[in-house]
Design a protein that fits this description.
Elements (H helix, E strand, L loop, with lengths): L4 E6 L3 H13 L3 E4 L11 E5 L2 E4 L4 E2 L6 H9 L13 E3 L2 E2 L2 H21 L18 H12 L8 H6 L7 E2 L4 H8 L11 E7 L2 E6 L2 E10 L3 H6 L3 E3 L4 H8 L6 E8 L10 E5 L7 E5 L6 E7 H10 L1 H16 L7 E7 L22 H6 L6 E3 L12 H19 L4
Parallel strand pairs: 1-2, 1-11, 6-14, 9-12, 11-18
Antiparallel strand pairs: 3-4, 5-8, 6-7, 9-10, 10-11, 13-16, 13-17, 14-15, 15-16
Helix pairs in contact: 1-12, 2-6
């Protein structure tokens, strides 16, 4: 580890890696510390079978026309598919919705958009306070909302959700978003298995304590998740100001987990590769995909409190939940195609993230700006939680890392 570098970067996720890129471009010396054994943070790809990559974390290049990872994917030869989110196919308590029901379904979301607009110039409210929770379609809205924010409607404010710049371009990275991040960042020097346990302001800069020793620098850039920051796992001397602790606390990470099962082969006559299924005796739907992008696996996604509960229930419960929804959508015979090769994510239990991505509690959308604000021009902050228009995304974290490193450079070289 370089001693007394210009900046110590804590966390080698998308934010920390993009910050390191800028540091190299600007000629700043840096030490990049990563607590885990790998880079990428919440961008992680594994192979569920040879030649079949599966993203455990981020998977879609959201707002693709504004997303820098599209060009990065082109540069590194990664394949992706141009599409807009999940299919509209809905399997509602035993049968597919017909066109008449889908019209009512669309009317619900039109009314929701109007309700959101009415709140934007007024005091913030919880999303649950402005939507029609008595509608038969509210369960689907609540479910998709939990995937997009990782939290539930009552836990999140309208202003925060509305600040996001959604272009309705959600392009899946077929070769794996996590693999793309790893390929793009392959040349960046990273100190793995180097957990930062304390950040101390010194007379001439900062000192970061790790289990391997102390690293000294002129500044430090913190890119850990808000849940890690709020947990006190990293001690600060002096302690973080109350406004910074509040910002971390009011931007909590929820859960967005993925459950994948390798199939022996795809069922004959399978025409819909994805749909959202609500079981007859359930209040929580699940979006499922069967053999997406020509693969041989099935996947289900959970979020919010239900996702958290299912994660705590264990891998077997998660796989059983996926199997029930697959059988409801494609018939019990689909079980003949199941195998015991599965991948189940558990981001809430991941010790280096403690969740999936951030959502501002009602009335606290402004805390993203507070979280991004430096302390004493020596402690800087980046990560998806610090960028209002692209929070909860890999490219949002990427943009925040670049923004923060330019702030570092301005502090270190005020004359240019």
């Amino acid at each position: 580890m370089a001693d007394h570098c210009d900046v110590i970067i804590i966390g080698a996720g998308s934010a920390g890696l993009s910050a390191a890129h800028v540091a190299m471009e600007q000629g700043l010396t840096f030490t990049l510390l990563e607590a885990s054994h790998r880079i990428g943070g919440r961008a992680l790809t594994e192979e569920i079978a040879p030649g079949q990559p599966f993203d455990l974390g981020c998977h879609w290049m959201h707002s693709a026309s504004l997303n820098p990872f599209v060009a990065i994917a082109e540069k590194h030869g990664f394949s992706y598919r141009r599409e807009s989110g999940w299919d509209r196919t809905i399997h509602h308590r035993g049968s597919l919705l017909d066109e008449s029901a889908l019209t009512e379904f669309d009317d619900y979301f039109t009314a929701k958009d109007k309700a959101f607009t009415a709140v934007l110039d007024a005091d913030d409210k919880a999303v649950s306070d402005v939507v029609d929770l008595d509608s038969p379609w509210a369960a689907y809205d609540a479910y998709w909302f939990s995937l997009g924010t990782s939290c539930d409607m009552d836990q999140t404010g309208v202003h925060d959700v509305s600040a996001y710049r959604d272009t309705d371009e959600d392009w899946p990275v077929i070769d794996g978003y996590g693999a793309l991040v790893a390929a793009w960042a392959a040349s960046i020097p990273v100190n793995l298995n180097s957990e930062a346990t304390q950040i101390t302001l010194t007379g001439d800069g900062v000192a970061v304590t790790t289990r391997e020793g102390t690293v000294r620098g002129r500044t430090v850039l913190v890119t850990v998740s808000t849940n890690v920051l709020a947990s006190g796992r990293i001690r600060f001397d002096p302690r973080l100001p109350a406004w910074k602790e509040t910002a971390a606390r009011e931007l909590p990470l929820g859960v967005h987990n993925r459950i994948a099962m390798l199939l022996k082969d795809l069922p004959a006559g399978c025409s819909d590769e994805d749909m959202t299924v609500l079981l007859p005796n359930s209040e929580v739907p699940m979006g499922v995909q069967l053999g997406p992008y020509g693969t041989s696996w099935a996947v289900g996604v959970t979020g919010g409190r239900f996702g958290s509960w299912l994660e705590r229930s264990g891998q077997e419960a998660s796989v059983e939940c996926l199997a029930e929804h697959l059988k409801a959508a494609w018939g019990s015979s689909v079980a003949r195609h199941f195998t015991d090769r599965v991948i189940v994510t558990a981001w809430q239990g991941d010790p280096w993230t403690l969740g999936s991505y951030s959502a501002a509690t009602p009335g606290n959308a402004h805390q993203r700006h507070e979280l991004a604000r430096p302390i004493d021009d020596r402690i800087f902050f980046a990560g998806e939680a610090t960028i209002p228009e692209f929070h909860a995304t890999c490219h949002g974290a990427w943009l925040s890392g670049r923004r923060a490193m330019h702030e570092v450079r301005a502090a270190l070289r005020p004359d240019g």
